[in-house]
């Protein structure tokens, strides 16, 4: 049985469907990386101003419950401390502008996004999909 595809251009288990990353790809892409699940940590949520600094002492599980209720977090892995942000119905990141395909929180974006594609499902490769 095939695993579900992350996006139309790339399958997680088939490296040949991913493109070796080069810096010039971002200028001619339709923000394919912004359709992948975004995993964040508490520091990212504070940077995004979704969680206040004083909440750092709260149990992460309680923070996750609040953010799930607000529709910001899809799930929380208590063991790893990783929150997965909710995506829009078309799988876009909550913070991706639908018209411009640009990040609306770029200066505050999570570390996962800052370090893509060095980190992610295929380090060094991109789910590149040309415009």
Automatic annotation (TrEMBL):
Organism domain of life: Bacteria
Pfam families: CxxCxxCC
InterPro entries linked to this entry: Puta_zinc/iron-chelating_dom
PANTHER family to which the protein is assigned, alphabetical: PUTATIVE-RELATED, YKGJ FAMILY CYSTEINE CLUSTER PROTEIN
Protein name as annotated: Fe-S-oxidoreductase
């Amino acid at each position: 049985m095939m695993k579900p595809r992350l996006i139309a251009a790339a399958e997680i288990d088939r490296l040949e469907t991913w493109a070796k990353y080069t810096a010039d790809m971002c200028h001619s892409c339709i923000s394919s990386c912004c359709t992948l699940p975004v995993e964040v940590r508490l520091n990212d949520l504070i940077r995004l101003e979704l969680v206040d600094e004083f909440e750092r002492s709260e149990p992460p599980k309680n923070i996750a419950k609040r953010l799930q209720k607000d529709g910001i977090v899809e799930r929380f892995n208590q063991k790893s401390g990783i929150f997965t942000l909710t995506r829009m119905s078309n799988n876009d990141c909550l913070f991706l502008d639908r018209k411009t395909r640009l990040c609306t929180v770029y200066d505050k974006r999570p570390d996962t996004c800052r370090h893509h594609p060095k980190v992610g499902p295929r380090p060094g490769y991109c789910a590149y999909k040309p415009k």
